[in-house]
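Sequence in, structure out.
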Amino acid sequence: IGIQSEGIGMGMAIGDLNNDGLLDILKTNVQYMSQNRLRLSCAANWGTEENLNRPSPLNLFTGMKNGNKKTFVETSFNYGLTDVGEGLGAVELIDYNNDGNLDIYIANGLWSGTEKSEDISSLFSRSSEFGTERAIREERTKETQSAIMKLLANYRGSISGKKGEQRLSLGGFQRNRLFRNNGDGTFMEVGYLEGVDSIADGYIVSVDDINNDGKQDLILRNADPGVVEVKYPPVQVLKNVGAQKASVRIRLVGNSSNRDGIGAEIIAKLDNGISQIRQVIANNGTAQSEPIIHFGLGSSQKINELMIKWPSGISSTVKDIKPGFYTIEEPKDYKKVSSAN
């Protein structure tokens, strides 16, 4: 069906990125460094390496329909998803600006080793000189994986970057990425502009509306060691304060289906003619985002019609939904039509 990836998979997210009614698949690949390396000598006290035969760190498989057959095509390059980083961990879909288009958030910070069995044989340390971070160097070791973990556990340097001290990093201090969906088949990296390009060793991402303001926030679980004066704590909460457009948020309650409606498919037809499709999922990799369906309205004022396909096979329709939060219970009769309160 067109899904083929040679990378060592780490994260996966599924959603309709182009609002064509077909689900697309995003897959991140851990960039284990191979034996085939090119060492580059750089000025300004930098040292780095380039892997010559690695797979793509991110795959986007776009859903296609050919008659009755559904297939996928790899389109990450066409969509502009190229500069994604080297230590990709979790990937999550978020409509952070409530424009109705799903954006992509990627955690960067997983380790790279010579092979899978030595997956944390590389540590990166950054020196601070006169308060300014000046160099990134790879510190290699022949110790076992457990020895490296012992080094992390016993590390007592200041992660806050004080003069003359070092901070360890498994991923080489790569920043998390936020790719904004432009709605025209392209994405733009805006992590720095939106204040979410964390330099911590990113690992797990969860999307939740933590203060019930209709905006999706980010919760990060980092791989940084938990020591005193940690600048990048194990957990970071990135509160969304920028979204200006309205949203509709739906919580499903199952009867014949499971209680949370996990597995349900929801299609929203907006008053501007655009349709959005969402699914209720239990978790995303090793994290669990809230089981709330989020529709950013963009230029729309309301959802004209909301169609729900419940896991039990029952279908229900709710009409005329204005911005806000709603709880919708699974009807006991088939194809019931109701109105939102």
